[in-house]
């Protein structure tokens, strides 16, 4: 599947520190690797049945910061993202609005691409859809079958979580917590015939009127978790650096994806990192509640996408927070000040700002601290009109490049 166009990212004269990141599996901030290693990142993408909202944008921007921090530390990055272009929510929405599911998936995927381009999110090297990945998924189901981790319920295939002795390590949830969440996030714990209520579906046999693909197990379509497991292992290999996504994917999605790999005798991610949830009108943004703020709607209202990005950067990626229009209006004014300061050319010394910003982002992607450092430079520069004797004659150029390369904001 085609990804979106990558933004041009300026090279910086300074090299950033090695990046540390919060690992949900250990509960600690850990190093993402030693000098000289390539970095690899898998981020769970959208199910394209509606437009990109701020919760999505918050997640994808967080891992864009990680991608940039790695690059600024001198590393090459292998980045893979999926799109779940066949799944129950997509089929349900297509039937409700009276369009072909493939048409809906392509339309919303294209809108997502446009949103990511506008927000200057670096595109993945591989952008893989579930539909095109069916052969990979079937290959992995075969591996799990040979490992004795697959069983049938009627014509459907399930994965046995008991085949993974490490099941539960990634989410660190008790069985009771898992059972409470599982039905809310696509699980079917009460289905008769399952060996364990937590066992996830990996191949859904053909249903009337629904898409299906031929397989050794009969016509059908893949389950959600096996999709990401197969794609990540195919394009990044076992033991890749970071599995990323929103915090609502901790369980069951990331737990199950990892367990599929483990049962097949492979390592999955070394680090599991999750972005916080974004709320609006007092509740988490969700399609079911209808309290969504769409990136495309703001863009169509002629809101500068860089202002949207700045609102997101002012919140640490792991925190839950609430979107307000006031934050957006303030970001628009802030960007005007940043651009005015950069346009002066001469300004307060840039080198300390470069060091602070790169250091903040290397420290668990602390974007609010990085933004504050830029703001302090802007205040100092505008306070003297950039003409003080101690000012830096190339400061504006350096800060513009820094803000672009590290924070993804084009001034």
What this model shows, in words?
There is one protein chain. Helix 1 (54-72) links the parallel strand 3 and strand 4 (77-83). Strands 5-4-3-10-11 form a five-stranded parallel β-sheet, with helices on both faces. It has a four-stranded antiparallel β-sheet with strand order 6-7-8-9. Helix 4 crosses helix 6. It is built from 13 helices and 14 strands. The chain is α/β, with parallel strands linked by helices. Helices cover 42% and strands 14% of the residues.
Order of helices and strands: EEEHEHHEHEEHEEHEHEEEHHEHHHH
What is the tally of beta strands?
A: 14
- Range of helix content: 40-55%
Shape: globular
Main-sheet strand order equals 5-4-3-10-11
Low-pLDDT segments, ≥5 res: none
Quickly count the helices. 13
Structural class per helix/strand content? alpha/beta
Distance separating the two termini: 31 Å
Rg of Cα set: 23 Å
The average pLDDT is: 95
Strand-residue fraction? Answer: 5-15%
